[in-house]
């Protein structure tokens, strides 16, 4: 690649020029006491495409979002919380300013007009760039080819003359399809090094000259992608990505109960099972990596049947107990049982009987435990690692390693086990 080919450099906003906006939603979910995955699922699956293409007003978004998620915070307060928890990425303003001395620099964002205007008012974003494209204003969003062409046109260049940085892989590959040289943003330091190796930006520190060859730049900075299909539609992800993560990155959601992005996958609940064409058995999406050409079905008859059966098994110990449960209004299991109409068992079995442990700062109601092991992982990561699965089979249950009550187990009272429990098995007093 010759330097004269590059006339413009384009950056994404959230997660690149600004800190990741999704983080504010995660904080809001914790503040409101909701499971983060569920919180983000509602936002991404139902609203992002509509609001980012101008098909839904800000007012409708907040009202419907509050209704579907069920949080109690006033809309004005929630909106203010979200908007105020955004700020420019450290060092990005300086980088853009330096690049504009030699190149045209653009900003391309999937966003609402209201939010962009708010950010521009507080941080003067439009003054930092030669051109800005906001998806809601153009009625089209990344990774649609049209929006990249609109960006190039506003900068007065062709797509082939542009360098593009975005933190989402699907947006990077979308830009590549129109001819832009596109790279996945990971951090400011890597972006500066990438530009330096392309001879587009000088490094600010006196360091040894890069040993990366011109031919290997593409291999180092442009991510190798794996292509796969979901319900006959093609998608992309990075090598080593699990099916569950790849689906989430492409706004396709598979319900889980044991999975949490902050813990290693355990594949205990068996709800994330998907069908992979060519394989005899269903596979767990949380623990199976995507392979090139993999053809995945997320809602085939076999998948739905298996998911419903597993829900019935998990719900067996909860039948008749929900009306008095502390998690009645926000129980992850109960929501899925309702969605798949799995509230009645096709088989009769004994319900487990255990005594509650009320000795510590949280209550352990073992009869409602679904053995997802989230509490064990949370205790291991944030607490004093005092929990484990006791016994085997029907009588297996979460308990303390020393066999004593929680109060005498070495528990440090961090309460993280209660925060991650998807049902009413562990809760604060």
Protein model, in words:
This protein is α/β, with parallel strands linked by helices and 429 residues long. It folds into 4 domains: 3-16 and 87-221, HAD superfamily/HAD-like (Rossmann fold, 3-Layer(aba) Sandwich); 22-84; 224-349, Ubiquitin-like (UB roll) (Roll); 352-429, Alpha-Beta Plaits (2-Layer Sandwich), CATH 3.30.70.20. It is 35% helix and 13% strand. It has 16 helices and 14 strands. The strands form 4 sheets. The protein has a 5-stranded parallel β-sheet. A 5-stranded mixed β-sheet has the order 7-6-10-8-9, sandwiched between helices. It has a two-stranded antiparallel ribbon with strand order 11-14. Strand 8 (273-276) and strand 9 (283-284) form a beta hairpin. The longest helix has 17 residues, at 36-52.
Fold topology:
Blueprint: E1 8-11, H1 22-32, H2 36-52, H3 58-69, H4 75-84, H5 92-99, E2 104-109, H6 113-123, E3 131-134, H7 135-138, H8 145-155, E4 162-166, H9 169-177, E5 181-184, H10 188-197, H11 217-221, E6 226-230, E7 233-237, H12 243-249, E8 273-276, E9 283-284, E10 294-297, H13 301-315, H14 332-339, E11 362-364, H15 374-382, E12 387-390, E13 397-400, H16 416-420, E14 426-428
Parallel strand pairs: 1-2, 1-4, 2-3, 4-5, 6-10
Antiparallel strand pairs: 6-7, 8-9, 8-10, 11-14, 12-13
Helix pairs in contact: 2-3, 13-14
Provide a compact summary of the structure.
With 429 residues, the chain is α/β, with parallel strands linked by helices.
């Amino acid at each position: 690649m010759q330097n004269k080919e590059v006339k413009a450099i384009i950056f994404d906003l959230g997660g690149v020029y600004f800190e990741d906006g999704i983080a504010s939603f995660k904080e809001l979910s914790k503040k409101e006491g909701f499971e983060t995955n569920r919180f983000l699922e509602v936002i991404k699956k139902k609203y992002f495409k509509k609001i980012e293409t101008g098909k839904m007003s800000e007012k409708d978004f907040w009202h419907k979002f509050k209704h579907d998620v069920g949080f109690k915070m006033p809309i004005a307060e929630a909106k203010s919380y979200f908007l105020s928890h955004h700020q420019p990425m450290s060092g990005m303003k300086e980088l853009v300013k330096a690049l504009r001395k030699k190149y045209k620099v653009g900003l391309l964002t999937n966003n609402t007009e209201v939010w962009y205007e708010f950010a521009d008012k507080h941080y003067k974003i439009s003054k930092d760039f030669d051109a800005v494209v906001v998806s809601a204003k153009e009625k089209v969003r990344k990774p649609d080819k049209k929006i990249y062409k609109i960006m190039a046109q506003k900068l007065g260049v062709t797509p082939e003359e542009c360098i593009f940085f975005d933190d989402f892989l699907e947006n990077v590959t979308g830009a590549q399809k129109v001819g832009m040289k596109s790279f996945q943003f990971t951090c400011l330091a890597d972006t500066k090094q990438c530009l330096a190796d392309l001879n587009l930006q000088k490094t600010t520190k006196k360091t040894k000259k890069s040993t990366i060859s011109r031919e290997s730049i593409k291999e180092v900075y442009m991510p190798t992608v794996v292509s796969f299909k979901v319900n006959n539609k093609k998608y992309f992800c990075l090598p080593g990505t699990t099916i569950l993560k790849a689906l989430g990155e492409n706004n396709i959601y598979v319900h889980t109960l044991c999975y949490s992005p902050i813990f290693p996958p355990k594949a205990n609940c068996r709800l994330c099972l998907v069908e992979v064409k060519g394989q005899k058995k269903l596979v767990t999406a949380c623990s199976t990596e995507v392979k090139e050409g993999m053809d995945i079905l997320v809602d085939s008859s076999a998948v739905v049947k298996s998911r419903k059966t597993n829900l019935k098994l998990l719900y067996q110990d909860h039948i008749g107990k929900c009306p008095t449960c502390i998690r009645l209004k926000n129980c992850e299991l109960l929501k899925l049982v309702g969605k798949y109409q799995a509230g009645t068992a096709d088989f009769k079995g004994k319900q487990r009987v255990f005594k509650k442990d009320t000795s510590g700062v949280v209550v352990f109601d073992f009869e409602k435990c679904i053995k997802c092991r989230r509490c064990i992982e949370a205790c291991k990561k944030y607490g004093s690692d005092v929990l484990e699965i006791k016994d085997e089979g029907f009588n297996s249950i979460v308990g303390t390693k020393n066999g004593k009550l929680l109060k005498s187990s070495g528990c440090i009272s961090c309460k993280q086990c209660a925060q991650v429990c998807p049902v009413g098995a562990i809760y604060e007093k």
